[in-house]
Amino acid sequence: MVLADGEKDPIELAPVAVALMPGHYVVTTAAAARGREGFMVQLPSGETVVGAVVSVDVANGTAVLSITADIDMALIEASETEPSDGGFMVMVPEATAASLWVDDRGTQVGYVGEARTTGEGSVVLDGFGRLVGLCTKSIDGVQLVTVEALIGALERATSASSPPWMGITADVDQDGRVIVTNVGVGGPAATAGVQIGDIIAGIDGHPLADLEALRAAIGTRLAGDTIELTMTRQTVDPTPMTTPIKLSVTLGQHPSSIETESDN
Length: 264
Known about the structure:
Elements: E1 2-4, E2 16-17, E3 23-29, H1 30-33, E4 38-42, E5 48-57, E6 62-71, E7 88-91, E8 95-103, E9 106-111, E10 123-125, E11 131-138, E12 141-146, H2 147-159, E13 164-165, E14 168-172, E15 178-183, H3 188-192, E16 199-203, E17 206-207, H4 211-219, E18 226-235, E19 241-250, E20 252-253
Antiparallel strand pairs: 1-2, 1-4, 3-6, 4-5, 5-6, 7-8, 7-10, 8-9, 10-11, 11-12, 13-20, 14-15, 15-16, 16-17, 16-18, 18-19
């Protein structure tokens, strides 16, 4: 189990992703990845690494991240229990008794007694500490993204060709612009000269509307392709000014292990 989005407000619970097989993929809920190109991911060791969203399956409620660290074993065991079996716990973040039931909206999650509000991707365990699924929130309450759906998403990601890697995480600022929040040390973006705080306005001459457009644009390329980023950069030395820049980035494959640099 790993925590995604290490910069999240501590008042809220950070989204959770889980490692269910060896490699460098972890899985979370589609809602956790909505509008995101990537997260900072905290491993159980306490190390923080870059995680990039490589696939989102809204129909199944899953999203897969590629992290810049190698996982040599599953960090949590999958459960084979049914909702009717009982004895469930939801981590919010402490273990709290939970009940599961199935209706026409899917598998619902409820708490026995009072509990702190769930974070997106809160873990649901059976009585033996095995993963039953992750919580996802909607206007209808809290639903379960089953462990079968999570494993399926990981299997599809690992069987696909290696996705292209730019080596950044990005977010949207208060003006709706795509801003670089982290640059992986030694990654393609860092090699090209991309810096934290750069505003990405376009790719290959096409305006960039939002993070979904950034993810879609990168997803159509292959490792080894070169893209041209149109950006603006704020500088303060010797005087504050905004400088338009263009950089060519040669995309790489997702690495199994690289150092990362945080802007904390």
